[in-house]
Amino acid sequence: MKLTRLSEKQKIAVSWWMPGSPYCHREAILCDGAVRSGKTLAMGVGFFLWAGSCFKEQQFGLCGKTVGALRRNVLSEVLPVLRGLGFSWSERRSENLLTVRFRGRENHFYLFGGLDERSADLIQGITFAGVLLDEAALMPRSFVEQACARCSVAGSRLWFNCNPAGPGHWLYKAWVLEAERRNCLRLHFTMEDNPGLTPEIRARYEKLYTGVFYKRFVLGQWVQAEGRVYDFFTPDMAGAAPESCDLWYISCDYGTVNPTSMGLWGRHGGKWYRVKEFYFDSRKERRQMTDGEYAQALGKLAGARDIREVIVDPSAASFIEVLRREGWRVRKAQNDVLAGIRLTADALKSGKIVICQNCENCLREMEAYIWDPACRGQDRVRKEFDHAMDDMRYFVSTVLGGSGGGFGVWTAARQGGYETKEFGRVL
Length: 427
Prior knowledge:
Elements: H1 8-15, E1 28-33, H2 39-54, E2 59-64, H3 67-84, E3 88-92, E4 97-102, E5 105-113, H4 120-123, E6 130-134, H5 141-149, E7 157-162, H6 170-176, E8 184-189, H7 199-208, H8 211-218, E9 247-253, E10 260-268, E11 271-280, H9 282-285, H10 291-302, E12 307-312, H11 317-325, E13 330-332, H12 337-350, E14 353-355, H13 360-368, H14 387-400
Parallel strand pairs: 1-7, 1-8, 2-5, 2-6, 6-7, 9-12, 11-14, 12-13
Antiparallel strand pairs: 3-4, 4-5, 9-10, 10-11
């Protein structure tokens, strides 16, 4: 992993707690801003350095949206750096427990996933000397507040890290706007604060995102979602169906009263094409179709093609059962709406997926799919003209998924009268 120097904000995130720092009296730190801005790595290293330097035989919380995401996004980046600083550790995965040793001191770090409101129950009863909440804006308020309430050891501190959401988000209102009142150090990061990013990589990210995602993930702004969801998409982006494909999927958004939409996806030359569709609106047709009739329509859409899997709306239990009985390989779709929209926007803009010109209903909905202006303070799409949009999102989220990864940036130097020294040496 390439080593570069830390930016000024990263130095602060690593060392704000040290005696002599102008921020050492703060009880919390919140780093927000653009993706790939170096905040996660700097905060993770700083958190372990603080815990290992100030405590022994204490318990700490490490929280992500899921434990898997926490391991991937934080620990995989931070632990190699800690080894170079003289840390060692052992892990009991069955207990999600990481025991970390530094300079003869040993502390225990419990890993938690703040996925939904039920997650708060997992963290009750434990006592922490500190907690790190990675991507705190993606966690329910009940979980975050329960994690903070567990920090009752003298000298305990709170560490928050997140990308922006909307201006009505509870974390923005309660912590970003109230940082001074809460004695919290707020550091706002941009991609310029990550010296590990080349100008070419920065330009790539600027091209990748659009609309509200550009403002949040590139500019690092807490802004309201408004207007068309896929505002960059124009009719000339529709393509022609390829003559042949080497892999096939079908995605399905199921409705009884609402329309049912199915898309046939084929891979050609590394791209995925929505080559055909089935769309049935029971209100318009003034009749409803049975699960069996929808299964027949799916078979007609597939034709003689070997369909790898049918990706189906996870709430369509009866339809899923019919498909399985008829021998289809069925997978319930990933249904995180906002994450799915972001992934779909990325895939459309980068050309990873192409909507073919004969998919008229999908192209029609692209123009009408909008953020709901009535949901001020929350990111929600208007629940109309969203059926082909949902089946497209199911395909992207479930089959293509997302890829993580990060950029390494480390070392630090003397600043403002206190010293962090260089990574690779003991602080």
